[in-house]
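Handout for the seminar on molecular recognition.
Each group receives one record of this type.
Step one: identify the two inputs.
Step two: read the structure output and locate the region that could contact flavin-adenine dinucleotide.
Step three: write two sentences on what you found, then compare them with the reference statements printed after the record.
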Amino acid sequence: MTDVLIIGAGVVGSAIARELSKYELDITILEKDSDIAEGVTKANSGIVHAGYNEKIGTLKGKLNREGNDMFDSLSKDLDFKFERNGALVLGFSEGDMVTLEELKKNGEELGIKGLSILDKEDTLNLEKNIKENVKGALYAKTSGIVSPYEMTIALAENAALNGARFKLNSEVTGIEKVDGFYRVKLKNGEEIEAQIVINAAGLYGDKINNMVSKNVLKVKGVKGEYLLLDKVSGKLTNKTLFTVPKKDTKGVLVTKTVEGNLLVGPNAEELDDVFDFSVTEEGSTEVNDKGLDLINEIPEKRIITAFSGIRPHIKSDFIIEEAKDSKNFINVIGIDSPGLTCAPAIAVYVKDLLKDKIELKEDTSFNGKRKGILRFNELSFDEKNEVIKENRAYGKLICKCELITEGEIVDAINRPLGARTVDGVKRRTRASMGGCQGVGCLIPIATIISRELDIPLNKVMKNNKNSNVIGFKED
Ligand SMILES: Cc1cc2nc3c(=O)[nH]c(=O)nc-3n(C[C@H](O)[C@H](O)[C@H](O)COP(=O)(O)OP(=O)(O)OC[C@H]3O[C@@H](n4cnc5c(N)ncnc54)[C@H](O)[C@@H]3O)c2cc1C
């Protein structure tokens, strides 16, 4: 029997796994997909929100500030990129300026530091490409940017190194309450017994809850589409530019990403029952038009891809609690925005919920540090030569847009919880994330995966399901 079973290896499940791996516990994480961060976590804005707009007295308000505070040390310990680039919420009318003052006051009551109101001149001095008709801005210095999957993979790798057991391709199809524990059934017929179950299943958090609890819940998907531009366009703004938030959404933003691209989006479209990730002409147009309300140009020819993410909305606040009718079954669901920012603080909050359920004895062998994949292109000329002398695979360039070497790809495959698909390599190294979006390196990456994992090339997948990179008949 496992002590704690976590369902879902998104940023929330992975952060909880790492937090709990500080204690002498047997931890199992079940993930239906073939990699970490395949769900909501893989497609979002990547903003570490300052949190000025969250309601006082809510979990979001509390955990946003606490989570934001944790990013400096967490990113150092786990070696993922994080930059406190700051955010400007732009006002374009007198009414907007009143709202910005209210947001500042709300933020200060939540304990958020570094908030100030700027006039037009100071706003334009900070970012010269902002629309000339701006009246002023709320400047939030603590806002930051992060790669959501890089962060999540780092959390999961560190949890795994500290003994947490990740079982990928393991979809939960049923949960049985037995006397004092849970029997969790997987699609492949396997059953796992657990003392405590933590439901961190993102868009499917309602289904997992409804397998156990009579308090039936329903996730409403709210889709957001994005346009991603190249790194030349990333220089158009250093800060994250927001519009004045509406009732349920922060609106379309324009931001530099932590890797230096420009990201514009997301809009907000409520979905019916089907989680449809398609991108649409209307969505792209809406995002582009709303982005152009904030910034002078969004160069069409520099758009490299469009994508969408879906927010798992249940109610206005997160649900992080034991199900009322199911002892030791903890829901961590309805984690829509700002869930990425909150994840490290959610993990601590969940750990505290477990205090009176299971003994939390510190594991003295816990190692909270993790080394990320070498970023070869960021080395000096001499350092590059040294690395190549040690390992010639770093002398072979595979992704010519992002300048990623074979050495980095081999590391991404062979490290704990390593990549098993081309997209797994992409999210760990950025290979195929550049201007050509993999046209040049898809097959070379697949060939390396095939060699390293000793599987036929035609069995290498682009991503999760039946997405064979090449199709040919076996002899
Ligand atoms: C458009 C958009 C923009 C956003 N922008 C931001 C932002 O800028 N900043 C911010 O802080 N937050 C942002 N968020 C919110 C943030 O992305 C989410 O809160 C966070 O990623 C949720 O993570 P999660 O781990 O709960 O869910 P997920 O990442 O979806 O993880 C749940 C996992 O559970 C797995 N699973 C589901 N069912 C089963 C099953 N039956 N068996 C086994 N595994 C299962 C799934 O495959 C998935 O991997 C945004 C969200 C969206 C959609």
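Reference statements: The CA atoms of residues 267 and 286 lie 7 Å apart. DSSP finds twelve helices and 22 strands in the chain.
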